[in-house]
Amino acid sequence: MDHFKSYLSFQRLIKINPAQTLALGFLVLIFIGTMLLMLPGATKDRNYLSFIDALFEATSAVCVTGLVVVDTQSTFTLFGQIVLMLLIQIGGLGFMTFGILIALFLGKNIGLKGRMMIQESLNQISLEGMVKLVKFVVGFTFLIEATGAVILSIRWAPDFGFPNSIYYGIFHSVSAFNNAGFDIMGNFNSVTSYVGDATVILTLSSLLIVGGIGYTVILDLIKKKSLRKLALHTKIVLLITFILNITATIFILFLEYNNPGTLGELPLKEKILGAYFHAVVPRTAGFNSLNTADMTLSSQFLTMLLMFIGGGSGGTAGGIKVTTFAVIILAVGTIIRGRDDVEVMGRRIPKELIFRAFSITIYSAFIVLLILFILTITEKGVPLNVLLFEVISAFGTVGMSLGLTPDLSPTGKVLISLMMFIGRVGPLTLAFALAKANKKQAVKHAEERIMIG
Amino acid sequence: MDHFKSYLSFQRLIKINPAQTLALGFLVLIFIGTMLLMLPGATKDRNYLSFIDALFEATSAVCVTGLVVVDTQSTFTLFGQIVLMLLIQIGGLGFMTFGILIALFLGKNIGLKGRMMIQESLNQISLEGMVKLVKFVVGFTFLIEATGAVILSIRWAPDFGFPNSIYYGIFHSVSAFNNAGFDIMGNFNSVTSYVGDATVILTLSSLLIVGGIGYTVILDLIKKKSLRKLALHTKIVLLITFILNITATIFILFLEYNNPGTLGELPLKEKILGAYFHAVVPRTAGFNSLNTADMTLSSQFLTMLLMFIGGGSGGTAGGIKVTTFAVIILAVGTIIRGRDDVEVMGRRIPKELIFRAFSITIYSAFIVLLILFILTITEKGVPLNVLLFEVISAFGTVGMSLGLTPDLSPTGKVLISLMMFIGRVGPLTLAFALAKANKKQAVKHAEERIMIG
Ligand SMILES: [K+]
Ligand SMILES: [K+]
């Protein structure tokens, strides 16, 4: 409580907003992580990491992305791996708790209606309530991670031996819940050995869905007894998550059914599990049970779209978020039908939120295209789909790759690190800036119209 | 005058708006063109076009795109070529004059402020004024086209012989002013033989810039004596056109300077001419003096961005339009700085226009990505950059290609035809729908907020 109050005074003193505090905190964490990963004890066989490689790995962990320039299992010692796991856990939790702080500030800035929304979804706006909420988020995180770790430890006992399997269970449970996508399976393999293993696939996918859906949804589901009474936000996130996962599973199944590099050789049950996992992980876990590079261009394209969309707000997921996606789809549909108000499930979406959704989408597309353009210059000879996949993966903090990451030029590594950082804190900062923008400016210029479209 | 009034009564009778009338008119024109191009007399050596090929060619001409599945010069007889030229001319003029009608309707729908804008930029809103304006547009078109034809006919007299060069002059002048990109140079060569020829390059580029900048800008420039008094619309279009052309020239020069497939072997003067032409044509002429397929991926990417942006509203150009591009850039900049009003050159851009710009951009990106996704399924084995280039070229009615067009599958040809049509009438229809949306809906649902980003 007192700590939080003194944080607020400190913040007023140096005049930075919560989003900026988050960005700064992440930078410090990345710097510490970089130093730790460069220590001789962090890597096996004196394979000391270069500064750029260590920076890349630390950024990838803190931003829960999972893109890697070296194979985690064969490169890092136990110490190095635990550093990565801690960076993931602090990065994931830090993002969620700062999300709460930012939601609180948004509530203050957007007036009574905004506060009512936050009261409805969080049922708290007082500082006391917020501290309680942070405690809930932390407790919930550890509870779910522990559950996942137990299931995975038992499943993996025959494969990695006991008690070694406990470490594997904890590492992958933390990585999955935080949507980090780091694995210690070796040889850049991710979980491809378990493509048809229902226990591993369903445990990991449940962890990453729960982690990526956002704490407001979790809270709302816990507090409300009836489905009807759920907040609009909860309903939209659940519905879109469901639709995207089902649709993507069907598409991947259809597109890869006969592809010998992916689903082609598998029995039907494993085909379905493989398609389902690949439909779920791009938003934004980043594990893979199929070799993404061997997929059809259609599936790679679909994966890129899913990576760009990402998960729910206020969770461990990245991307523009499912609500943003839903609102722009609804808005464009409304416009084409020549109507004015964007309506869904008997409710009207406020104009300012539609504007915010458009802004975040366009800003995200800008950043992705800008970094992509620079990479076409620095990474000569790499096909467009491989480059675009890498950039969107970094932006959405997904961590899937068509295999480019270890082969990136030093400039490329710095650019992708930057993209991971921007992808993580950018949209949130933007949402914050947008909420602040409601304060009127002092001088009003005269309006003048121009022709659009 | 009377014709126009009876059109208005007819329109009220069947309840379609001008944008829908335009779409219908284009469909009828495409159908007539398809039939004409399938006639035995339209093609040389009994190379009768299939229905799909004729449909593709007619759509490409009416929508002034310039993508071709067969080489225009070697496939079509003089009759066939003249059919194409007429389709281009009617398509181009039809679009411009309907643009005026739509601007008039927009003016009626968007209230007093909107009318003042149209009065300012067109200086007319009465029916009499509109008929005068249409006459001006038609007269101006023929004047500029005639000028271009004379210069090109003289230049080409040694190459194609007199009076044959007159035909070449007229065809390419009409094609350039209407930003159609069709050529009769043979062998899919476009104007690559004239990469270093200042007369050809500067004449064609001047024609396509004037045609693509929009009649409101032309009118404003003719009527206003001083640069200071120009409408905001005019200033923005001129400034962005200038910036895009200069920046793109420098980038292309830099990116292709040593590329032996494009600028590498040319003397400096021709390098600059080649870079300049390639910077200008993607918005949205579609001629090419360099082989686009041999360009670096960076240049191809830059070309795609330019094709997506397109030219000015109310001209022969396609794409989202330079004003839309300017407004979203300004809006995102404003948002990131945490400010509220989008301001430029001492004026404020109305909120509703910003919304319109966002909508058109997102809608366009949707359509491009949707068609692209289907093409990854129908055109197996084609790299992403080649497919994306083709789709954006069709959407922006540009007509450049990395060589895919003649090799498209029948489904692919239909999809690209559809894309050319949507790219041509879609954004305008959308702008119209958006303007109508200002009418309030009868039933208002309760507002409910959700978390965005
Ligand atoms: K990830
Ligand atoms: K064109």
Automatic annotation (TrEMBL), chains A, B:
<dbReference type="GO" id="GO:0015379">
    <property type="term" value="F:potassium:chloride symporter activity"/>
</dbReference>
<protein>
    <submittedName>
        <fullName>Ktr system potassium transporter B</fullName>
    </submittedName>
</protein>
<keyword id="KW-0406">Ion transport</keyword>
<feature type="transmembrane region" description="Helical">
    <location>
        <begin position="51"/>
        <end position="70"/>
    </location>
</feature>
<keyword id="KW-0633">Potassium transport</keyword>
<feature type="transmembrane region" description="Helical">
    <location>
        <begin position="382"/>
        <end position="402"/>
    </location>
</feature>
<feature type="transmembrane region" description="Helical">
    <location>
        <begin position="275"/>
        <end position="293"/>
    </location>
</feature>
<keyword id="KW-0812">Transmembrane</keyword>
<dbReference type="InterPro" id="IPR003445">
    <property type="entry name" value="Cat_transpt"/>
</dbReference>
<feature type="transmembrane region" description="Helical">
    <location>
        <begin position="305"/>
        <end position="333"/>
    </location>
</feature>
<feature type="transmembrane region" description="Helical">
    <location>
        <begin position="20"/>
        <end position="39"/>
    </location>
</feature>
<feature type="transmembrane region" description="Helical">
    <location>
        <begin position="353"/>
        <end position="375"/>
    </location>
</feature>
<feature type="transmembrane region" description="Helical">
    <location>
        <begin position="414"/>
        <end position="435"/>
    </location>
</feature>
<feature type="transmembrane region" description="Helical">
    <location>
        <begin position="133"/>
        <end position="154"/>
    </location>
</feature>
<keyword id="KW-0630">Potassium</keyword>
<keyword id="KW-1133">Transmembrane helix</keyword>
<keyword id="KW-0472">Membrane</keyword>
<feature type="transmembrane region" description="Helical">
    <location>
        <begin position="198"/>
        <end position="222"/>
    </location>
</feature>
<feature type="transmembrane region" description="Helical">
    <location>
        <begin position="234"/>
        <end position="255"/>
    </location>
</feature>
<dbReference type="InterPro" id="IPR004772">
    <property type="entry name" value="TrkH"/>
</dbReference>
<dbReference type="Pfam" id="PF02386">
    <property type="entry name" value="TrkH"/>
</dbReference>
<keyword id="KW-0813">Transport</keyword>
<dbReference type="GO" id="GO:0005886">
    <property type="term" value="C:plasma membrane"/>
</dbReference>
<keyword id="KW-1003">Cell membrane</keyword>
<feature type="transmembrane region" description="Helical">
    <location>
        <begin position="82"/>
        <end position="107"/>
    </location>
</feature>
